[in-house]
Amino acid sequence: MPLTAHAPLTIDEERFAADLSAMSAIGWTNESGMQRTTFSDAHAEVRTWFLDRARAAGLRTRVDGAGNHSAILEAADPRARTLLLGSHLDSVPSGGRFDGALGVLCGLEVLRSVRDAGLDLPMSLEAIDFTDEEGAVLGTLGSWALAGELTSDALASPRCGRDVLLSGLERMGTSEEGLLTAARDPAGLAGFLELHIEQGPVLERAGVAIGIVTGICGSVSFDIVFRGAARHAGTTPMDARRDAGLAAAALMLEVRETVTRDFAGCVATVGDVHLEPGAYNVIPGVADLKIEARAQHDDELDRLSAAITELARAQARRWDLDVHIESTGRWSPEPTDPRMRAAIAASASRLGLTVMEMPSGAGHDAQVMAKVTASGMAFVPSHHGISHHPDEYSSLEDCINGSNVLLGATLALAEEL
Amino acid sequence: MPLTAHAPLTIDEERFAADLSAMSAIGWTNESGMQRTTFSDAHAEVRTWFLDRARAAGLRTRVDGAGNHSAILEAADPRARTLLLGSHLDSVPSGGRFDGALGVLCGLEVLRSVRDAGLDLPMSLEAIDFTDEEGAVLGTLGSWALAGELTSDALASPRCGRDVLLSGLERMGTSEEGLLTAARDPAGLAGFLELHIEQGPVLERAGVAIGIVTGICGSVSFDIVFRGAARHAGTTPMDARRDAGLAAAALMLEVRETVTRDFAGCVATVGDVHLEPGAYNVIPGVADLKIEARAQHDDELDRLSAAITELARAQARRWDLDVHIESTGRWSPEPTDPRMRAAIAASASRLGLTVMEMPSGAGHDAQVMAKVTASGMAFVPSHHGISHHPDEYSSLEDCINGSNVLLGATLALAEEL
Hints:
- Two copies of one chain form a homodimer.
- By secondary structure, chain A is of the alpha/beta class.
- In chain A, 37% of the residues lie in helices and 23% in strands.
- Chain A contains 13 helices and 15 strands.
- In chain A, strands 3, 4, 5, 6, 7, 8, 13, 14 and 15 form a nine-stranded mixed beta sheet that branches. A four-stranded antiparallel beta sheet of chain A has the order 10-11-9-12, covered by helices on one side.
- The first copy, chain A, starts with 12 loop residues before the first helix and ends with a helix.
- At the A-B interface, helix 9, strand 10 and strand 11 of A face helix 9, strand 10 and strand 11 of B.
């Protein structure tokens, strides 16, 4: 008889709520929210807490060469593949309680619930906390390592600098060489499921409980520098100026107008502008912009990139400026696996929860894992769309709903995959 | 017989050129141009050089309680009033050779030329180097002190801080109390003449040798802060944003458009913008702008101020933001004295030099002196309008022309005033 024929198995809400509360306290500061950046004491503490809770539930634990922390519920069959469930316990500086942490606790709770129900699934389950998703060191370091796609180039110039990387790895009990040992044979993986907060306002605005992620958006980023002439703001007539700030301003507005008009569902943002010399009485001679855009499909991302760079060149001509455009990053979009999406949808349906399909505008470990295994991802609503901020909040009910959806999807996938 | 009936008296070009060259070397660095900020060693050195050159020419010298350095050619009549000629020897950091220094050397050269010609004028002449025009300490400190308009408020919070002010004054051989002793009785002053580089491109573009300054523009400045919501740039749809950066951008363009369209002859500049948090992947939640505008008439300045603040409020409404507008300064326009303008025009005409009337967009010691005595000001062309920069340049011919114009104007005024 199929495991999913009866009333759906659900998690232990009381245990889940108590653990969510306990976990949220580790690294929390009243002044500036969650401080669990990679390599921090609070980060190490919450990871230890996670393993302790797993052991207390009778689960096996493991820390791999990339510092990824896992709780494991093994199938009876030693040849069984492993379905991974997880996210990350690190936070941005001054972050919130839910980003990443919810997905790790969900994974742990799914394993505990399966074990409590005495089910013997035809695949092993592994709740995983990936190292450094937020990028204090590199960004999705743990999932890159597990996917076997960590490059020596990336390790040569980590955001935190080489010294911090090496001493941090040592503190985690591993090393640069150790990172490479974290790679898994994709043949042993059945897939990856990640529960995450939406980090945007879409679900809340639509009044929907569960977002089924169709794919993780790709992104491009640019550093665009306009150069004109820094002149005296009092003595240089309006028609004799080469004001780099005005080109920056016009570009900011045109990028917004273009993406809104021509690229439905995409986003583009000028996150920073720096003017030089930056004084009341000097016309800006230099304007330096940080621009980022995201799209769900590679061709759309390419067209959006081309549109932005052409707008920048046109503004340089309009204001008689030089322009330098530097591409500072490109991430390809990664669609999620259709079977994973179907399992999430079916599970939500059995639980009577409303769903909507949506792309993820943010990057996630699921984006990396999609390169080597079938990946699926579910969102729960973020209050006011706030994230990467102490005010980040998702209700306990939404967190429980999401965890139940992943539990149901896990049981369904255990039969299918 | 009137002094101006003959072929015009002119300066000693060779002496003037040699002194301009020697003076320009003091504080000059190959890396970053002129470094003669107030209280610096180079500033003290050039002021000593100025007094030495005055004494070498048989002129009396004087340093007042505000550190203003003067060379004096006294009239035979002890009751004669004094016509001041000068500017300032301090520079901005990494400045040029001509801003201020030209006017001081011109004053010295006018005195030497009158003395060499053996003329006994009915008024005393004083070439003056005002302290701290550029504002490392306070801005036009020396002229404020001489005009008797230095306030204890201004001295309570100088830009450089109280400690630097007090130790700097001590190094100049004066004190806070000493500053007050520099005030002169306006009854003893016949007027003030200042030669300066234009610091803008107008004369060069028009091919005109001498600018007759109609008045020094007034200015207003504002610090305008828009506050929206800093949200994830990937997960927040374009229609769910409160992007403070976009309001800043729109305001920058509208300020330019409005001043160009509705305020002929005025200027307005957004010199700096600061976005927070200022990252690729976060929508700017705060945008902080520094805006400055200048006009020739008080009512025009008020209308321009009102227009700018209304544009800022309209942008806040358009983008659903909060806005805080802080006025950070207001200087009233100061017209120059019509008799001074006429004397400059007549002198230039006798020398066969082309002239045009123009406002000064930049502030000057003449702006302060206009509060207590008849002030006049002449400009010579600035190559490419560059100023406050090592590339600041005015040709020797233009500098000599300007000095001859002030010499002729001095002789005319000595008869008239």
